[in-house]
Design a protein that fits this description.
Blueprint (H helix, E strand, L loop, with lengths): L28 H9 L7 E5 L6 H12 L2 E2 L17 E3 L9 H13 L4 E5 L11 H8 L3 E3 L5 H14 L6 H10 L4 H18 L5 H12 L8
Parallel strand pairs: 1-4, 1-5, 2-3, 3-4
Helix pairs in contact: 1-2, 5-6, 5-7, 6-8, 7-8
Length: 229
């Protein structure tokens, strides 16, 4: 007889954003070095670019905590400029919504004039954001971009371990290593696998074992790559 399954409640899992929880590997070490060296930056306006799940928000939150930066939504920049003075500014996921182009242009000018700093994170390089305001395009071209690369084994394993820890789930290292060797090498896939395995373990009243991990990987190989619930 099949084991009874428990329908897990959909609790949110708040990620940890402390510096101690940051996973560092060759894939992201340049970006980490940029955050750690602030305010000794090569320019007042910097961009962190990388794929979904690469840790851009984690790095941005570390910087925001240290710099006491004000976080602004990319579509609502114009009305906030008068509140800033010389306070640093963070725009996380700058290419995730239609950006306030006039507001960003004036914000960059404000940051430069006041000896402050602006950090933007995005999935794409600035010139791929679809910006049309010529003066803003010029400003973005002048902003150095630091790229977070696709994950190596160390980063992928570290991120998966952290994602499980965020859910207060203990997973043995050999299980994580098994997953790293078999899933698509992307952080977005790692996030979906962790979510799926957590749910499977709750449904089956089980630890996350290698056998359960193999079940999830096999489901992906059989055409259920999105791991839909």
């Amino acid at each position: 007889m099949d084991k009874p399954r428990q329908l897990p409640l959909d609790f949110s899992h708040a990620p940890g954003y402390s510096r101690d929880e940051l996973v560092v590997s060759p894939a992201n070490e340049e970006a980490v070095a940029l955050i750690d060296r602030w305010p000794d930056w090569p320019a007042p306006v910097m961009v962190l670019s990388g794929p979904t799940g690469a840790g851009k928000t984690h790095l941005a939150e570390i910087w925001r905590s240290v710099s006491e930066a004000m976080a602004l939504h990319p579509a609502k920049l114009s009305q906030a400029i008068g509140l800033l003075d010389s306070r640093p500014v963070l725009i996380d996921d700058a290419d995730g919504a239609a950006i306030d182009e006039n507001g960003l242009f004036h914000l960059i000018n404000h940051v430069r004039a006041n000896g402050s700093y602006l950090l933007m994170t995005a999935r794409r390089f600035p010139l791929a954001w679809g910006v049309r305001l010529p003066d803003l395009v010029s400003r973005l071209k002048a902003a150095p971009t630091v790229e977070i690369h696709e994950p190596d084994d160390a980063l992928l394993a570290g991120v998966m371990t952290k994602l499980f820890a965020d859910r207060q789930v203990e997973v043995d290292l050999p299980v994580v290593q098994y997953l790293v060797r078999r899933i698509e090498r992307s952080l977005a896939t790692a996030i979906r696998v962790v979510e799926r395995l957590d749910r499977m373990a709750l449904e089956e009243h089980s630890r996350i074992t290698r056998a359960l991990a193999a079940e999830a990987v096999n489901a992906m190989d059989e055409g259920q790559g999105e791991l839909g619930f």
